[in-house]
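Narrative summary of target 7.
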Amino acid sequence: MNVYKLRPGISPVKVINKLQFEQDTMKSSPWYQSHKDDVSLYAVCPACNNPIQIIALYKRNENSPQPYGKHIPKSINGLAKYNHGAYLTCPYANPGMSLKKDNLRSDGDSLSLEILSFLKQQFDRVIYILQRETGIIFNEKLSKDMLISFLRMHGHQYVGINLCNLPWIFAYMTTAQSLFGKRLQNDCPLMMSLKKRKEIAFSEDNRIQSATNKFFEIQFAFIGHEMKSNGAELHETIDFVVSLNGKAVHTSKLIINPMRFHNLVNLPPERARRNPTLLRVAEELIP
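Modeled conformation, tokenized:
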């Protein structure tokens, strides 16, 4: 893998780079650990919270021209405990794993519980990311409906969800939702697509409505979660699809960017803009 973070949980995701790693760690313990005749470098996997070893940061060879992170099956004192179950479903360790929606981690799995807790703390930011990605303005009811759907599908137990891709896979682990009467961001790609449909009109505040007073069903859903790896970088996507009377009329591929989400989560308090209404929704619904 080509990324790391310094601590388990909420911590910025960084690309592995010698100067960046030195500045982040100041070459100190627990990231630099001395042995009898060597020094090992450690960090944490952004997705599964397991310890990783940083390889080839200083010593390069033909097989490792660039530094990279490698999972190690042991705990590192002062840094991170090893969780084998989390390792088995980590996208960086196993990008080829089955991503069927019914492929769930066991009840009580520690990573699943951590993801659920993380969602409770960051629900407003999860919705913010989805709003920016789709052009849909998520009001309280729509946000609540999606959270209820996620919990019914046991989304936090899905093997493809982790601390990096939470906003996108939260959306993926929900059922279709109605778009009728919902507001869209002005001139977003979705609005431009729907304006081409003769059945659809928009109110002055950009709400979807009928142009002919005839009933139609318009829904959106997130499908097709895919992971691909070239050995260093992980490329992960889902598809955002809007259907009109059961037929797709707008599709866009959403590229999952873990750095974007974790940078948002780690904004300093003076720059953070939180949504207390959505945080109350999460507090009420998430156990």
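The radius of gyration is 21 Å.
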